[in-house]
Every structure is written in C-alpha cells, then in structure tokens.
Amino acid sequence: MDAGGISSGGIKLCAFAIAITSLYRPCSPKGLLHTKGYRLRSICLHRLPFVPLEALSAGARAQMKIAYALAFVGLLAILSPAADARRLLQSSSITDADILNFALNLECLEAQYYSCAVYGHSISDELTGNGPQPIGCQQANFTNDDLYSIAMDVANNEIAHVNYLRTALGNSSVQCPLVNVGDAFSAAADAALNTTLSPPFVPYTNDLYFLTGAFIFEDLGVTAYKGALTSFQSSDIMLAAAGIMAVEAYHAGYIRTALIQNGDVVTPYGANVTTIINAISMARESLDGSAAMNMTDDEGIFNSTTGDYTLAPVDSNAVAFSRTASQVLAIAYLNAAGAAGGFFPNGVNGKVQFTSTAM
C-alpha cells in the first residue's frame, strides 16, 4: 500500500481506465454535413470525469505514470495467450529488427495513402529510405472540414510511425517497398463485391470513399501488431509496438464510427456503405485463410444475426484478433497464395515474407 491507501495493482487498473476515458473531447455541434450528395454525419464523443495526477500522493503519481505505459500491454500479456494463440512469427531465426522492418513496410503503405490523400504528395525520400514513388498517388476530394482535420492527424501519425521505426532501426532499416495506392483499391473492391465496379472504385473521390479505403488498412494493422507482440524478445520493443498498435486502434475506431453513422447511405454502385464494408471484412477473412478453417478474425460494422453495429472487431473475450505475417501479406497482396501484388506489387522488403496461412 502507498501513502494514499491504494494498492499498486489497483492504481494500474485505474490508470488504464482513466487513460482511455480521458482522451475524448467534445466536438462542435455542426449538425449534418453534406459531401458530394452524401450526408456525412458528425460524431461527438464527450470527455468523462478525469482524476488529475496532482490530486494523488507523490508515490501514487509515480506509479500512475508507469501504469499509463504498462497497463495496456500488461492486459494484453494476460489475456492474449488464452484468447488467441496466433502469433505473427514462430521462427526463432527472426529477430526483433526483422519484425520491426516488417512493420515498417506496413507503415510505409499507410503513410503513403494518407499523405497522398491529405497532402497530395508522397512521403519524403528520406522517410522511404530512397524507396520508389507510390503508384496512384493523388489528393482526396475532401469536403467535410472535420474529416479533413482528422485525416491530417492520422496522416501525421502514420508518417511519424515510419520515421520512428526507421530511426530505431538505423542502418538495419529496409527501404519502403513499391506500394500501389491507386488501382489496387479498385481491385480490392471488385474482389470483395465479386464483380467489376463501373466506374472503378477510387478512394480519393469523396469523404466516404476515403474512409472505405482507410478501413482496409487500419483493422489489418491492429491485427498485425497484436500478432507481433508475443514474438518480440525485447520487452522495450514490445512496449513500443503496443503503443503503435493502440494508435492504429484509435484510428480504426474513428473510421468504423464514421462508417457506421453513414452505413445506410446508398452508393452509386447500388449497395449501401454497410454492405460494402461487411463485404471487405469477409474478403479479408477469405484471403487470410480463416474462413476456410471456420475461424473468425474479422468483423464488419453490422452483425446481421444480432442486428447490432460492431465498433470493435473482437473475439468472445472482447480481445482484439491476431494475424500471422503470412495472413497479413495475403490480404495486402490480395492473393491467398501469397504472390506479390495488390498494395505491394513487388512484395515487401526484409526477412519476413509469406510462407503459408495455414495454422
């Protein structure tokens, strides 16, 4: 017990709850916003009561600061093995640097997409390690100022992730690979809906299409980092990876919320947003082999069985799903057999490559 009469375990669990609930701030009540004929509804998440650190004793403050960093990854360490034994990698010949380089490939893809959509250009040569320019880079036609502001924040986060990983890896970092942030999206949409869309799906067309493109990446990133956590040998690196995963989960949560609130909007393709997003989720499960094994590692935004919306794709214990490296690549390549293509036309760089989606 510390001077405040609170056990260290209690402080850590309280810190986790406080850290989550203190992140929301009120948004301006702008009502309904319109974008190219589509109604994009604003989202307001309100701040819950927050206990300031200054109100705690010196001992409690010190433990609270540590708990902010450790509670999240600590809960994962407790729950993950029992809930989902799927790991990103099983081979002992793969190092922490190899896993971080694999993550760098994924962050390069996300950073290029968001940078193109928000700023109209790719990330710098310094950040890519003088890697190739992306295919299909263009600025998105944002008409919702709130969404553009959030998209800019996400873009800056993803760019920072690339910089962080490249700096941490130093001379061991790989170049960003060639990424396709153009017609790979139309190929993904065609595959998900089992048809050839006309005109082709382009995520830069409007706000809702941008969110749909983002939906493909963010959930995939969360499951990739979740699968990697128990593969790291260094606890410091595991903690850093858990921090990045948390940011990806925040992104995914916002994107899912925005899509849910516009789920009944019917697109020019004759299907509403919910139908398209759920089809993308099912396509990911098909590509990564889970559907064939009668396993679930993905969820759309609406559960037709229960009639409820799904904010967080989780297992029966409400724990995030995991994917192996091969499963992640099968989705990113848009090829269940793992042949390079899709969003990585020439494959990813580094030692971690596709082997098999079989468990």
Supply database-style keywords:
globular; 49% helix; disordered N terminus; mainly alpha; two-stranded antiparallel sheet; 359 residues
Model description:
The chain is mostly helical and 359 residues long. It is built from ten helices and four strands; from the N terminus they run H-E-E-H-H-H-H-H-H-H-H-E-E-H. The chain has helices at residues 8-21, 58-83, 96-119, 125-128, 145-169, 183-193, 207-228, 235-260, 273-287, 325-332, and strands at 32-35, 38-41, 302-303, 308-309. The chain has a two-stranded antiparallel sheet with strand order 1-2. Strand 3 (302-303) and strand 4 form a beta hairpin. The radius of gyration is 20 Å and the shape is globular. The N and C termini lie far apart (45 Å).
| Topology as a string of helices (H) and strands (E) | HEEHHHHHHHHEEH
Main β sheet profile:
2 strands, antiparallel
Please report the distance between the alpha carbons of the first and last residues.
45 Å
Radius of gyration: 20 Å
Query: Which structural category do the helix and sheet elements fall into?
Result: mainly alpha
Strand content: under 5%
The helix content is 40-55%
Number of helices: 10
Q: Tell me, what's the shape?
A: globular
List how many beta strands DSSP finds: 4
Compute the average pLDDT. Answer: 82
Strand order of the largest sheet: 1-2
Oligomer state of the chains in this structure: single chain
Low-confidence stretches: 1-39, 41-55, 61-86
